[in-house]
Design goal:
The complex is a heterodimer of chains A (286) and B (488). By secondary structure, chain A is an alpha/beta fold. Chain A is built from ten helices and ten strands. Chain B contains 15 helices and 20 strands. Classes of the chains: A alpha/beta (286), B alpha/beta (488).
């Protein structure tokens, strides 16, 4: 006798909790046979604003977590994902991937987490310098997180793309607010469950689902967001994001048509995109 | 208004005989044209504007006003020169830049005098800071030109193309050096616009660039006001904009280039916190406060314009600060005794005076030493505002003049929160003899440059630039190369 499945309710992930959208709205994700796969939360502007509060609150403590610890937390995410591979493969297949492609994507996603976990206590040495000033001062420049980062994920490679953006941003000490792929949101929310069980403090990664058209302007204009990353080739949206971002000199990062398997997407230079450089002087003469 | 309790103590003892720097040795023309494609040419529309000596309101020279047509010629010249310059060996690019550094050093005295004449800054500063640092900047980046692959491990840097650079009036030659040197070292060609009120040293630099044999079109210098700048920003054949100036204009630029492939770096305004703890070396800290806010008449984006003094020493610090202010000499920029020169322009003087009015109307307690200001020209006495809080406009907004706001604090956490509670993030200062406290503070202050037990120090090897609304990108050091390269 076949057993009746338990279907999962997909919710948002804000400040380490899984609330439904405050708006009570949803959109349906269907498979190629037009059957319902899941109802997905249609996050609102207010959800986004609440998420910024959660991300800001978590940022300082996360930035001050030691590099070694951050690396172990990222490695822990990889371990948790490894243990739940089958679920993610099934979700990618439900979202239209072939079994082979789904398996490849999950494997690469796990490996990418391990890659960035390893950078956790190394990128600082790559990007920081001691500067030989021509006066009696000790002078050095070191990198720090930019702060709170909005990420608008692309529509392709929904899991690998997500991890390729989240991992470098959080290993740099930032907290992030991700708007998941609109057409393929399932893995994003399941990833939130992985994060929730991986010692990632609540608020460090926040995941929303919903419509880009509705949320991008808020993600780009919010005055307490320091940087925005947009993945996609909608030129009008790109332009509009830059315009909104100029209101508080947000740092903008754009990934146009992008294959996340590409070697360039596994690089400390991606971590650098959400870092600031601070230079400190102190006299040495006595 | 409270006045001058210290004046009797100092005034009599501090009379200096005038020691003006001579102007005999400088070469200035009556009229300056645009420097485009290796030639000095007249502007297409034939318009000129006056550049004024801010210390006596007298005209120094007339300067070409570049219109859209001139900017287009400059961009075309830069585009034409790009391939040759980018493909030149790094060694040869470096040699040209070394030549520029040397020629500035050779003519340093002339440049210092012209900088002070045109901009109003004390000759001591232009002679000891602006001009030598400008030469050092070229010398530093000259050496990078053939070593770029060491700056970016595992990547191949390529120049961006034609770069539009717009610089401010507070450090005219130095800002030109900060912009030109890294752009040239990385193989870009340039259209540079100096500020409307201080174009002369950039035009003198054009002479040096011409003398050093730099291939024509690699550097083009166009003069004009905001409209000329807008023409550069909006020119379709420019690959990158580098701007130093106000946050307002920075936001305009970021918006204007939205949706284009232009890259941008912005070095914008600031409202730097300067924090004095009770365990600081108080006399040194007082010197630091003076240097932080009165250096270059306070026309410094990274000025320490918000003073925070720990409550237990506030009385002592303020007393010593007032006494020190009594000794500051305001006057002739060319006099070697001068500490505070002329305010750069009438317009800027009005802005500062307006902020002083606002400070008074908001209930701030003003202190200015009694100093005689010259009758002609633009002058502002060094000014303190006591009894102000975070909500005061003069505490929140960049004044860009010799006006310091003073607040007190009790705990470290309180002062960190107050210092960071601003949209700006360019600089900050910390004064304490306690090492752990220094690093605790420097790690938590949201600013791109932190001076601990010092202030307003600059060096070609030291990256400079802001957090938050003070802009992005760095100038100086290895990291200063990055804004001028792309990667395949």
């Amino acid at each position: 006798m076949s057993r009746l499945d338990i279907n999962k309710t997909y919710k948002l992930y804000i400040g380490g909790k899984f609330p439904r959208t405050e708006s009570g709205r949803y959109y349906a994700v269907k498979n190629s046979k037009d059957n319902l796969v899941a109802n997905i939360c249609l996050a609102s502007r207010k959800d986004f604003r609440n998420t910024v509060v959660a991300a800001r609150k978590a940022q300082t403590a996360w930035a001050n977590t030691t590099a070694l610890n951050k690396g172990q937390v990222l490695y822990r995410i990889a371990e948790m994902l490894e243990g739940r591979k089958e679920q993610f493969i099934a979700e990618l297949i439900a979202q239209g991937e072939s079994a082979k492609a789904a398996q490849k994507e999950v494997n690469r996603s796990i490996d990418r987490l391990v890659y960035y976990a390893g950078w956790s206590d190394k990128y600082q040495q790559l990007f920081s310098t001691v500067n030989p000033v021509s006066s009696q001062h000790f002078n050095f420049s070191n990198v720090e997180p930019v702060g709170v980062v909005s990420i608008i994920a692309g529509e392709n490679q929904s899991l690998l793309g997500l991890i390729s953006l989240i991992a470098p941003a959080i290993v740099g000490g930032n907290t992030v607010i991700v708007l998941a792929s609109e057409s393929k949101p399932l893995t994003a929310i399941s990833l939130a469950e992985v994060l929730n069980s991986s010692d990632v403090p609540g608020g460090v990664v926040n995941i929303l689902t919903g419509k880009k058209d509705e949320l991008f302007s808020h993600m780009a204009s919010h005055m307490d967001v320091n940087s925005i990353i947009y993945c996609g080739d909608d030129e009008k949206m790109t332009k509009s994001i830059s315009e909104f971002a100029s209101n508080n000199i947000k740092r903008t990062v754009f990934f146009k048509k992008n294959d996340w398997y590409n070697e360039q997407n596994e690089s400390p230079y991606i971590i650098e995109k959400t870092l600031e450089l601070k230079t400190t002087w102190h006299p040495t003469g006595i | 208004m409270k006045k001058n309790e210290n004046k009797d103590m100092f005034k009599a003892a501090w009379n200096y005989a005038a020691a003006p720097e001579s102007t005999d040795h400088i070469n200035l023309q009556k009229q300056y044209d645009l420097y485009i494609d290796g030639k000095f040419i007249k502007p297409v529309k034939g318009k000129y504007f006056d550049t004024i000596n801010p210390s006596n309101d007298k005209k120094i020279a007339s300067v070409a006003e570049a219109t859209a047509e001139d900017v287009d010629l400059a961009v075309k010249a830069a585009r034409k020169a790009f391939k040759g310059w980018a493909n030149l060996s790094g060694k040869d690019r470096g040699k040209y830049i070394f030549r520029i550094a040397r020629l500035i050093q050779e003519r340093a005295r002339e440049f210092a005098v012209i900088e002070s004449l045109d901009g109003g800054k004390p000759i001591r500063e232009s002679r000891d800071i602006d001009i030598p640092l400008a030469a050092n900047h070229f010398f530093y980046y000259a050496g990078w030109a053939d070593k770029l692959e060491y700056a970016f491990p595992n990547r191949k840097p390529k120049p961006l193309g034609v770069v539009g650079q717009i610089i401010p009036w507070n450090f005219p030659l130095l800002m030109a050096a900060w912009k030109l040197a890294p752009a040239l070292a990385t193989g870009n060609t340039i259209v540079l616009k100096p500020a409307e009120s201080t174009p002369l040293t950039a035009l003198k630099l054009a002479e040096i660039i011409n003398d050093c044999g730099l291939p024509k079109g690699v550097v083009n210098i166009v003069t004009g006001a905001g409209e000329t700048g807008a023409n550069i920003v909006n020119h379709p054949d420019i690959n990158k904009i580098a701007f130093t100036g106000s946050t307002g204009v920075g936001k305009y630029i970021a918006k204007a280039i939205a949706g284009t492939d232009k890259k941008v770096t912005l070095e914008l305004g600031g409202k730097g916190a300067n924090i004095i703890f009770e365990d600081a070396a108080i006399d040194q800290a007082v010197e630091g406060i003076v240097n932080a806010i009165f250096f270059n008449q306070g026309h410094v984006c990274c000025a320490g314009s918000r003073l925070f003094v720990q409550e237990s020493v506030a009385g002592l610090v303020i007393q010593k600060l007032k006494a020190r202010m009594e000794t500051l000499i305001v006057g002739d920029p060319l006099d070697k005794n001068t500490d505070i020169g002329a305010i750069n322009s009438k317009k800027q003087l009005q802005t500062i005076q307006n902020y002083i009015k606002i400070g008074l109307s908001e209930g701030g307690e003003i202190y200015q030493p009694e100093c005689s200001l010259p009758k002609e020209g633009n002058w502002c006495a060094p000014t303190l505002f006591l009894n102000v809080s975070q909500s005061h406009k003069i505490v929140q907004e960049e004044i860009f003049g010799p006006v310091l706001t003073v607040q007190t604090f009790r705990t470290i956490n309180e002062v960190i929160e107050k210092a960071n509670n601003t949209p700006y993030g360019l600089s900050a200062g910390v004064w304490t003899q306690n090492g752990a406290k220094i690093f605790h503070l420097t790690q938590r202050l949201e600013a791109g440059v932190i001076w601990a037990n010092t202030f307003n120090k600059f060096d070609a090897t030291s990256p400079f630039g802001g957090y938050k609304e003070s802009g992005f990108g760095r100038e100086g050091g290895l990291q200063g190369l990055k804004p001028y390269v792309k990667f395949e």
